[in-house]
Amino acid sequence: MAGATALAALRAAARECQLAAPSFNDEQAAQGLAISDELRARFMRPASSASLAAAAEEEVPPLELLSEVPAELMSIILSHLDLHDLARLAATCRSLCRDAPTPPPPPRAIWPVEIELRRRAEARGLDVGSSLPEGAASWVACLLKRDRRDTQLRQAPLAVGSKHSIFVDKGGRLLTCGRDRIGNSILLRRSALLLGHAVDPDADPNMPRKIGPPTPVPSMHGRRIVSVAAGDDHCLALSAEAEVYSWGDNDYGSLGHGDVDARGVPSRIESLSRIERIAVGPCGTSAAVDEDGRLFTWGKACFCYIDMDESGEAERFEGPSGLGYELDAEAMRQTTPKQVAALSQERVVGVALGDSFTLAVTDAGAVFFCGFSRRGGPGNGSLGSEVLPRRIEALTETGRRFVAVAAGQFHAFALTEEGELYGWGYLEDNFHRRKERAPQRVAALIGQRVKLVTACGSVSCAVTEKGELFIRGGCNSLGHIDLGRSAKGAQTEPTRVDRLSGVEVAAVAISATHTLAADAAGVVWAFGCRPALGLDALGTMSNATVPTPTPIPKLRVRVLNSP
């Protein structure tokens, strides 16, 4: 009886430790593992000399011994492994990852690695389902791939503006480089703020500030960053503690602090917590998605631009900028993050901000649009504006589940779970070489499995599962990217960057002036406008263009390698 009571108490303690495991620091985790090792040693019967000799002769791998650990302790051990270690364990210890039949038997019969991967998916609110997706042969492989894709889409170690770049190195440090924009004193003041470093009070305000190599932001020392986002006017950074920091210009309340005061160094947005994803628009809008899938937006509330009608006459167009909720008719800005209530019944897993519109993708695989576009932005075959998010039915009708979106100036993309890319919008911007008001499969990339897509202005890029980078770029004579070649002229179709042949691209950031691509080892390859690339030594900076991908010295960013 005493033994049964003690065993029940041990099981209860193990369950309590399992619930607390995600909050353990490294020291606590080490203590827990030491205790589990001590318990295992106490409960194992002493091995006979004959059995020890037999074991030595069989050369039993140490990993096989994990199968003897009680299930409660095993779950705690696996909860402390990162995705790469889980993948290695699955590949080297079949007794821990052997797949159960489909549909799976009761939970106790599911193997430990699968149990841990299911727990992580459920903790993020993802519906794993009871049957394997079409074409999948293994639950472990399927869940590993989904976890990797979700993390890869959530975390961005690179971000670029027109003349500056932001990085997250392997240690989680926030680094920036680049220079101020050329313009009047007001623009110089604003652009200086984009670098995140405090302004020297004795510096000449009429001289643009320059930072040559990627340099850590002093005020963020000790904070571990996992993702960054940048525009031409402001920047966001997401910490490992799920906190959001902002800095830069703030005329439209884009920094989210309830005011319009510019900030030269990153400041935490106090009203946001438990954030998983961030996004920055090129024209003063910001967005964040929390752990519950709630979408928050803030910044510029309305948008206007001048366009030419069919007769060549100038027309002025105004509409909502894509915040996704009603504001007073006179409101020009939303200075604090506000939840998009129209999507409160959806779980948002991705967001992209265009010049005047917002795209959101849900866990169910649906894509929503809100904002203003005269050039096909809604993706529903019509022109005009949507104040509240509206599902893009043309994408739903494809029968595909979408996992990511990207937005440029007047064009947009949606990526399916199978790696199929759909684009729509104005002229060549959507990879189609014509105006597509409704989403169409990007024909030039059929046969390629795309894993990442991004867009900015009138340039776009896609990364395939093989790590190949495709770009539709602009004219190099205007200082735009030139696909890593020395050729001049615009590229009207997605073209592979041949100079990165043999490099597995794992992350990419693109602007109208330069491109950054990180490989699987964290090496960053840069090309385009040199001042923003981080290739110059401290105190020096050239105005030249770098036509071919060049690695940034001494920099390794935080990327998710293939498990």
What do these coordinates show?
This protein has 563 residues and is of the alpha+beta class. It folds into two domains: 54 residues, no CATH class; 398 residues, 7 Propeller (Methylamine Dehydrogenase, Chain H). Helix content is 20%, strand content 33%. It contains ten helices and 30 strands. The strands form eight sheets. It has a four-stranded antiparallel beta sheet with strand order 1-2-3-4, with no helix packed on it. A four-stranded antiparallel beta sheet has the order 5-6-7-8. A hairpin with a 4-residue loop joins β16 and β17. α1 runs parallel beside α4, α5 packs antiparallel against α8 and α7 packs parallel to α8. The longest helix is centred in the N-terminal third of the chain and has 19 residues. The radius of gyration is 26 Å and the shape is globular. About 6% of the residues have low confidence.
